[in-house]
Amino acid sequence: MFECAQRTADSVSWGTGPLRGSFNPKYNSISTRSVFTVFSHGVLQVNFHWLNDSKATLQFRKKLKDRLEEKAGLHFPPDYERRLVPFQPDEWMGRSAEIIGVLRELIEQGPHEAEAGEGRQQPGPRVAAFPRQRDH
Fold first, then answer.
1. How far is the CA of 105 from the CAs of 27, 41, 87, in angstroms?
2. What are the distances in angstroms from CA 53 to CA 35, 50, 67, 85?
3. Which DSSP state fits 15?
4. What is the pLDDT of residues 70-109, one digit of tens each?
5. Reduced to 3 states, what is the DSSP secondary structure of residue 86?
Protein backbone atom coordinates (compact mmCIF):
# COMPACT_ATOMS: atom_id res chain seq x y z
CA MET A 1 0.00 0.00 0.00
CA PHE A 2 2.82 2.40 0.79
CA GLU A 3 4.52 1.86 -2.55
CA CYS A 4 1.23 2.44 -4.32
CA ALA A 5 0.48 5.58 -2.29
CA GLN A 6 3.98 6.93 -2.81
CA ARG A 7 3.68 6.60 -6.59
CA THR A 8 0.14 7.89 -7.02
CA ALA A 9 -0.77 10.35 -4.27
CA ASP A 10 -0.30 14.08 -4.64
CA SER A 11 1.31 13.94 -1.20
CA VAL A 12 1.87 11.47 1.62
CA SER A 13 1.89 12.79 5.17
CA TRP A 14 3.20 10.99 8.21
CA GLY A 15 1.35 10.55 11.49
CA THR A 16 2.67 12.11 14.65
CA GLY A 17 1.39 9.59 17.20
CA PRO A 18 3.79 8.66 20.01
CA LEU A 19 3.04 4.91 19.98
CA ARG A 20 2.84 3.97 16.29
CA GLY A 21 3.62 5.44 12.92
CA SER A 22 1.27 5.94 10.01
CA PHE A 23 1.15 7.22 6.46
CA ASN A 24 -1.68 9.15 4.91
CA PRO A 25 -1.94 9.54 1.12
CA LYS A 26 -3.75 12.63 -0.13
CA TYR A 27 -5.34 13.07 -3.53
CA ASN A 28 -6.06 16.76 -4.12
CA SER A 29 -8.77 16.05 -6.68
CA ILE A 30 -10.71 14.16 -3.99
CA SER A 31 -10.10 15.92 -0.67
CA THR A 32 -7.64 18.02 1.28
CA ARG A 33 -7.50 15.14 3.81
CA SER A 34 -6.34 11.58 3.39
CA VAL A 35 -8.63 8.94 1.94
CA PHE A 36 -7.07 6.24 4.10
CA THR A 37 -4.39 5.71 6.74
CA VAL A 38 -2.11 2.72 7.22
CA PHE A 39 -0.59 2.31 10.67
CA SER A 40 2.73 0.65 11.49
CA HIS A 41 0.91 -2.14 13.37
CA GLY A 42 -0.87 -3.03 10.12
CA VAL A 43 -4.29 -1.45 10.59
CA LEU A 44 -5.85 0.09 7.48
CA GLN A 45 -8.28 2.88 8.31
CA VAL A 46 -10.70 4.23 5.71
CA ASN A 47 -11.23 7.90 6.58
CA PHE A 48 -14.86 8.33 5.56
CA HIS A 49 -15.55 10.94 8.25
CA TRP A 50 -12.95 13.26 6.76
CA LEU A 51 -14.23 13.00 3.19
CA ASN A 52 -16.75 15.83 3.24
CA ASP A 53 -15.13 18.71 1.31
CA SER A 54 -17.77 18.99 -1.43
CA LYS A 55 -20.69 17.23 -3.08
CA ALA A 56 -18.22 15.46 -5.37
CA THR A 57 -16.23 14.27 -2.35
CA LEU A 58 -19.41 12.95 -0.74
CA GLN A 59 -20.18 11.06 -3.95
CA PHE A 60 -16.62 9.68 -3.99
CA ARG A 61 -17.07 8.56 -0.36
CA LYS A 62 -20.26 6.63 -1.24
CA LYS A 63 -18.68 5.04 -4.34
CA LEU A 64 -15.59 4.10 -2.31
CA LYS A 65 -17.70 2.31 0.29
CA ASP A 66 -19.85 0.56 -2.31
CA ARG A 67 -16.90 -0.59 -4.42
CA LEU A 68 -14.84 -1.77 -1.42
CA GLU A 69 -17.80 -3.87 -0.31
CA GLU A 70 -18.42 -5.22 -3.81
CA LYS A 71 -14.87 -5.83 -5.04
CA ALA A 72 -12.82 -6.32 -1.86
CA GLY A 73 -15.49 -7.88 0.36
CA LEU A 74 -14.98 -5.35 3.15
CA HIS A 75 -17.91 -4.60 5.45
CA PHE A 76 -18.83 -1.18 6.81
CA PRO A 77 -21.18 -0.06 9.57
CA PRO A 78 -24.45 1.68 8.61
CA ASP A 79 -23.11 5.02 9.89
CA TYR A 80 -19.83 4.72 7.97
CA GLU A 81 -20.07 8.36 6.81
CA ARG A 82 -19.42 9.53 10.37
CA ARG A 83 -16.56 7.17 11.09
CA LEU A 84 -12.92 6.41 10.52
CA VAL A 85 -13.35 2.68 9.82
CA PRO A 86 -10.41 0.45 10.84
CA PHE A 87 -9.52 -2.98 9.45
CA GLN A 88 -7.09 -5.32 11.14
CA PRO A 89 -4.25 -6.73 9.00
CA ASP A 90 -5.94 -10.13 8.64
CA GLU A 91 -9.10 -8.41 7.35
CA TRP A 92 -7.48 -6.48 4.50
CA MET A 93 -3.95 -7.59 3.58
CA GLY A 94 -5.16 -10.60 1.59
CA ARG A 95 -7.42 -8.22 -0.33
CA SER A 96 -4.87 -5.49 -1.02
CA ALA A 97 -4.92 -6.03 -4.80
CA GLU A 98 -8.69 -5.49 -4.84
CA ILE A 99 -8.44 -2.45 -2.57
CA ILE A 100 -5.75 -0.90 -4.79
CA GLY A 101 -7.89 -1.65 -7.85
CA VAL A 102 -10.85 0.18 -6.34
CA LEU A 103 -8.69 3.16 -5.38
CA ARG A 104 -7.15 3.26 -8.85
CA GLU A 105 -10.56 3.17 -10.53
CA LEU A 106 -12.08 5.92 -8.40
CA ILE A 107 -9.07 8.22 -8.29
CA GLU A 108 -8.56 7.99 -12.05
CA GLN A 109 -12.24 8.87 -12.54
CA GLY A 110 -11.87 11.91 -10.30
CA PRO A 111 -14.78 14.11 -9.29
CA HIS A 112 -17.21 15.00 -12.06
CA GLU A 113 -19.10 17.92 -10.54
CA ALA A 114 -18.24 21.53 -11.28
CA GLU A 115 -17.91 22.46 -7.61
CA ALA A 116 -15.53 19.57 -6.96
CA GLY A 117 -12.47 21.80 -6.92
CA GLU A 118 -13.89 24.62 -4.83
CA GLY A 119 -11.72 25.37 -1.85
CA ARG A 120 -9.07 22.83 -2.78
CA GLN A 121 -5.86 22.69 -4.72
CA GLN A 122 -6.16 21.19 -8.15
CA PRO A 123 -4.28 17.94 -8.55
CA GLY A 124 -0.72 17.94 -9.74
CA PRO A 125 0.52 15.62 -12.44
CA ARG A 126 0.81 11.96 -11.51
CA VAL A 127 4.31 10.58 -11.75
CA ALA A 128 3.30 6.95 -12.30
CA ALA A 129 0.20 4.82 -12.58
CA PHE A 130 -0.76 2.39 -9.84
CA PRO A 131 1.70 -0.49 -9.94
CA ARG A 132 0.55 -4.07 -10.17
CA GLN A 133 0.08 -5.50 -6.69
CA ARG A 134 2.92 -7.61 -5.39
CA ASP A 135 2.86 -9.75 -2.29
CA HIS A 136 3.85 -7.60 0.68
1. 13, 27, 21
2. 12, 8, 20, 18
3. -
4. 999 999 999 999 999 999 999 999 999 999 999 989 888 8
5. strand
